[in-house]
């Protein structure tokens, strides 16, 4: 599990898992960070806290993203021309991105653009500086984590860029908790809605 452009260390943060993914990550040289709490945000944040490099790259380690594309995302942050770089998924084949997941993402991205955040996707691949990410104070520990992160980053005046990345089929025998089913997409949408409600309440206090 190389981390090109993100320093010499790889971290694999995982919630309670029965599929053997922590063992696979360890065999490939990653330091596995075990997170007792369930939830996407809990796993990602634990990995962020455990990271020891100035720049942090986050991506799903399910084979859907190519880590060799990370240097292109790292470059703007490393050079100081961007504070956060997010990948925009470009499916490489039919059926990679189910219609319900694509529709849910399009809706959330439209809401972000309405807030002045220039994104077309809410993908799980991004690069930023570790200390800056921790300083945002993201509190969601479920699927709403990346949405809250983006909203807080924009509110803090971060320069956010979006770059195209290839999006492929997941590794055989695995299924996404979000895009793998309509139910999963609805669950993620519920978490996103919760984040948006929280943000709206805080605006009017």
From TrEMBL:
Record-linked InterPro entries: Glyco_trans_2-like, Glycosyltransferase_2, Nucleotide-diphossugar_trans
Family statement drawn from the similarity comment of this UniProt entry: Belongs to the glycosyltransferase 2 family.
Coiled-coil zones: none
Organism of origin: Micromonospora ureilytica
Pfam families: Glycos_transf_2
GO molecular function: transferase activity
Keywords: Transferase
Transferase is among the record's keywords: yes
Keyword Oxidoreductase: no
Cited PANTHER family: RFBJ PROTEIN, UNDECAPRENYL-PHOSPHATE 4-DEOXY-4-FORMAMIDO-L-ARABINOSE TRANSFERASE-RELATED
The protein's name in its UniProt record: Glycosyltransferase
Ranges where the record places region Disordered: 1-28
